[in-house]
């Protein structure tokens, strides 16, 4: 459903400080800050340090904004740290370079390929379920991270890591912590690239670990004989991809895309599943409806790719978790030239922001927005959700390439585990910590309960 178009006449946001603008408030708590901006109006001006910014929160304005990215607006790199991890991958590249890389990377995650990955998703989840026992205490995020990392490594590289993903997982956790330090510090966003405060040194050390392990796997694959039959995975497709001029990705480009697929392919889904288990633990009615659906549709067998469409309630649970706790929580882009949004001018150089966290929790679009209600996504739900009121994977031309992979993975993993177990989470306030993704601020610990 589309909401009626509204004027995007900007209103001023909170007053900031000379030179620093609203940097301190943004760095202290970006989620709360964006919530206050939304309370000012639909289109609100503010300043990130000396830079002009506009925050939009209406679905129609968000749709217009996202549709214009790569035409009028250019993706904004927030800070220094993310660039060190993903380099010039499709996530951060722009213009003709982005178009070329997207053309080469997109075929690796098309729906027909996701179908082939579904068996790996279920097999890995079944292995985890085989290690769980009634009464076992688990760190939910750690369990989900190890699981989704195993899935993405098998689908990306065709095998498991020698250390079961420990080094890569620990390195990624360290990178997440330092990216959060960069955002929370506010002024850290404006440090010159040559500066090396302790948090940057720690981040670089973790990226070095990621580089070494990913390069080892890429080099091993390049040395293999294609006749061995291990080329039909994400990495094999990246290495085989050619653009319209017949050019392959360079070694550095393969590294950047592999790291991006690895990081995005497991961190977003593990985060979604962690929040999902916490929300289900608090919602006995939703959990009961889940087990009823799994028993009725699966009849005791593991799920398959075809079951993704046959499990609407399971999908709705994932969708509602993504609404309440979207792993990606903000999209910024800068006007490359004088532009317009909702009929109002946007000067060149202005940063336009929209936030999944803020719009997903707007009471205008979602009744009782803080409540976990998967039934709001029922086909016959009375309250239709406007287009772009829910956009956890972004929108427009730069919609996340792995959206289908992530939704299928989260649904099939949840189905595989929940048909045998429930995680009874300890009391948790549900506070997210802002970093590259929205992770729980404190660990989610739970007791495994067999069905």
From TrEMBL:
Cofactor(s) of this protein: heme
Family annotation (Pfam families): p450 (PF00067)
Molecular functions (GO terms): heme binding; iron ion binding; monooxygenase activity; oxidoreductase activity, acting on paired donors, with incorporation or reduction of molecular oxygen
Binding site for heme: 400
UniProt entry tagged with the keyword Iron: yes
Alphabetical keyword list: Heme, Iron, Metal-binding, Monooxygenase, Oxidoreductase
PANTHER family: CYTOCHROME P450, CYTOCHROME P450 12A4, MITOCHONDRIAL-RELATED
Family: Belongs to the cytochrome P450 family.
Listed name of the protein: Cytochrome P450
Natural source organism: Streptomyces triculaminicus
């Amino acid at each position: 459903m589309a909401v009626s178009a509204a004027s995007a006449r900007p209103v001023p946001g909170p007053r900031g400080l000379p030179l620093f603008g609203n940097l301190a408030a943004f760095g202290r708590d970006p989620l709360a800050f964006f919530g206050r901006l939304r309370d000012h109006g639909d289109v609100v001006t503010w300043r990130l340090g000396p830079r002009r910014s506009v925050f939009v929160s209406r679905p129609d304005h968000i749709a217009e904004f996202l549709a214009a990215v790569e035409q009028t607006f250019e993706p904004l790199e927030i800070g220094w740290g993310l660039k060190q991890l993903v380099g010039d991958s499709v996530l951060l590249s722009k213009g003709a370079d982005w178009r070329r890389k997207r053309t080469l990377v997109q075929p690796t995650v098309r729906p027909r390929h996701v179908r082939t990955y579904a068996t790996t998703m279920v097999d890995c989840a079944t292995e985890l379920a085989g290690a769980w026992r009634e009464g076992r205490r688990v760190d939910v995020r750690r369990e989900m991270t190890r699981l989704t990392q195993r899935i993405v490594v098998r689908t990306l590289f065709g095998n498991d890591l020698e250390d079961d993903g420990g080094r890569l997982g620990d390195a990624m956790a360290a990178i997440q912590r330092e990216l959060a330090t960069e955002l929370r510090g506010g002024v850290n966003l404006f440090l010159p690239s040559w500066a090396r405060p302790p948090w940057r040194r720690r981040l670089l050390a973790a990226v070095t670990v990621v580089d070494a392990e990913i390069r080892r796997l890429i080099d091993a694959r390049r040395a293999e004989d294609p006749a061995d039959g291990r080329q039909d995975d994400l990495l094999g497709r990246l290495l085989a991809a050619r653009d319209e001029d017949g050019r392959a990705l360079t070694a550095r480009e393969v590294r950047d895309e592999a790291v991006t697929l690895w990081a995005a392919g497991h961190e977003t889904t593990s985060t979604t599943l962690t929040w999902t288990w916490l929300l289900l633990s608090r919602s006995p009615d939703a959990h009961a409806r889940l087990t009823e659906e799994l028993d009725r549709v699966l009849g005791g067998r593991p799920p398959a790719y075809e079951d993704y469409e046959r499990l609407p309630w399971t999908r709705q649970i994932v969708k509602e978790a993504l609404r309440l706790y979207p792993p990606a929580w903000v999209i910024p882009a800068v006007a490359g030239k004088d532009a317009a949004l909702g009929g109002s001018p946007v000067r060149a150089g202005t940063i336009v922001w929209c936030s999944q966290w803020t719009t997903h929790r707007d009471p205008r679009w979602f009744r009782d927005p803080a409540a976990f209600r998967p039934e709001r996504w029922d086909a016959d739900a009375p309250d239709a959700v406007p287009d772009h009121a829910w956009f956890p994977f972004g929108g427009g031309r730069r919609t996340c390439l792995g959206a289908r992979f992530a939704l299928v993975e989260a649904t099939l993993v949840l189905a595989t585990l929940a048909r045998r177990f429930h995680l009874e989470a300890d009391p948790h306030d549900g506070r997210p910590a802002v970093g590259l993704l929205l992770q729980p601020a404190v660990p989610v610990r739970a007791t495994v309960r067999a069905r």
